[in-house]
Amino acid sequence: MSWWHYVEQFFPNLSSGPPNRPGLPDIFCISPRRCEKSGPAEGPEERFWTLCSRDGNITCLDFSSNGKYLATCSDDRTVRIWTTKDFLDRDHRSLRANVEFDHATHVRFSNDCRAFIVCLANGETLRMYKMTKKDDNITFSASPEDFPKRHKAPIINFGVAETGKFFMSASSDTTILVWNLKGEVLASINTNQMNNAYAAVSPCGRFVASCGFTPDVKVWEVCFAKGGVFREVCRAFDLKGHTAGVCGFAFSNDSSKMATVSKDGTWKMWNTDVEYKKQQDPYLLHTGRWSGKEPCRIALSPDARVIAISSASDITVYNAQTGEVEEEFLSVHGVVITDLAFDTGNRFLVSTGDRAVRLFHNTAWYRAAIADMNDMLKKATNKGTKERLQQQIRDAHKALNAVMKKKN
Questions:
Q1: 390 to each of 305, 368, 387, how far by Cα in Å?
Q2: Nearest to 186 by CA among 142, 228, 236, 155
Q3: Could you state, in order of their start, the residue ranges of all structural domains in the chain?
Q4: Among the listed ranges 28-37, 121-130, 206-215, which one has the minimum average pLDDT value?
């Protein structure tokens, strides 16, 4: 399959790009290096558009592991489920689930994409909603009881293992709890980082990691016996090299790479595909600079080619291999960005803040892929391989130009 046919699977309307959407508030027009608020987006330079506008401030987003859905939660006491295949369409419809007597600060899909879990702001615990599909409709039903309240400090994040064997919740003190899906605590971890700034489950479902006041990221493996019975949580490895507290981190889709961002003004890219049980340590691939303006968040594209860092209300996109700045988007939201993520197919970068979800074409991914194929072309010795790479490079340039609304 050619590069172009591969891209067309994900961009069915690529020839025309994202359509104009008159009537939607807070749309931005984007130049390659800067975005400025200018009312409804029009014209050939549109590369950034608004998925929705809501009655409350959006606090979190999450993509389902199958890539079909995007969940967002807001302080208007709702969770909305969006279909990713509609991102480039003129109309965006969502399904709404109400959060009774509270609102959600975080939302995460279950591993089978048939449920989602929210963190309750006032209840300071977790609640599960089942998604039931009947005919063309999806209905939501909350579990009869919320998960027991076990944290003594506010929950800062939680995540569900792709294996379905456990999920993790972390609070702002130094506590991480590992749960089974029945709501029973399997293990409690003291991170010894003075306070937790961020924690997450790896996409492979093996690890949990945390960062905080200390200049490192700590990673643990959640171990199960062959029969699926929980065994233990053991220390796997640390990411060391920053000189100040780590604000956040992100995994690649296969968990073989991680990106970190620190108060010391640097971000780092790591290879974590190591045999830690044989005392092999992760090794540093690249160090880059960022503005240092907090609060910040970091996102790593699933294939680890692109890094995005939000700094207050701005976003900077980097080539993860060279460290070069690919794009800068200023004042993306009217308030601090609350969440930042790439979709599972590397197509979009999505941010939340104020009452809107902003979507960007991930053009940096095309450029990074083209650079990789050019490197492969230089090393290729087989004539057939060279011709195939040359064609794929041409197709990739076509796809990039179509997204950028420019002709060769």
A1: 20, 15, 5
A2: 228
A3: 46-364
A4: 28-37
| CA distance to 47, 69, 390, per residue, from 406 (Å) | 12, 30, 21
Could you tell me if 300 and 342 are in contact, meaning their C-beta atoms sit under 8 angstroms apart?
A: yes
Which of 278, 197, 286 lies closest to 241, judged by CA? 286
CA separation, residue 379 to residues 322, 370, 372, 373, 393 (Å): 19, 14, 11, 10, 15
Fold topology of 46-364: Methylamine Dehydrogenase; Chain H (2.130.10)
CA 85 to chain centre: 17
Residue 21: what pLDDT?
32
CA-nearest of 89, 123, 87, 81 to 105 is: 123
Name the 3-class secondary structure at 66.
Answer: coil
Evaluate whether 298 touches 308 at the Cβ level (below 8 Å).
yes
Q: How far apart are CA 121 and CA 103, in angstroms?
A: 6
Helix or strand (DSSP H, E) at 69: strand 69-74
Residue 299, both tokens: 């996102």
Rg of the chain (C-alpha set)? 21
Q: Higher pLDDT residue, 237 or 15?
A: 237
- Token pair, residue 56, equals 């409350």
Q: In the predicted model, what is the mean pLDDT of residues 368-383?
A: 93
Query: What are the structure tokens assigned to 99, written together?
Result: 């959060």
Positive or negative CA dihedral for 364, 367, 369, 372? negative
Contacts 24+ apart (CB under 8 A), 371-380: 371/319, 371/321, 372/305
Burial of residue 66, with CB atoms counted within 10 A of its CB: 0-12 exposed, 13-18 middle, 19 or more buried: exposed
Does residue 260 sit in helix, strand or coil? strand
pLDDT at 359 over 80: yes
- Tell me if 342 sits within 8 A of 299, measured CB to CB: yes
Q: Which amino acid is at 34?
A: R
Tens of pLDDT, residue by residue over 59-83, are 999 999 999 999 999 999 999 999 9
Of 188, 110, 181, nearest in space to 151 by CA:
188
The CB density around residue 79, as the number of other CB atoms within 10 Å, is 23
pTM: 0.85
22 prior amide bond cis, ω within 30: no
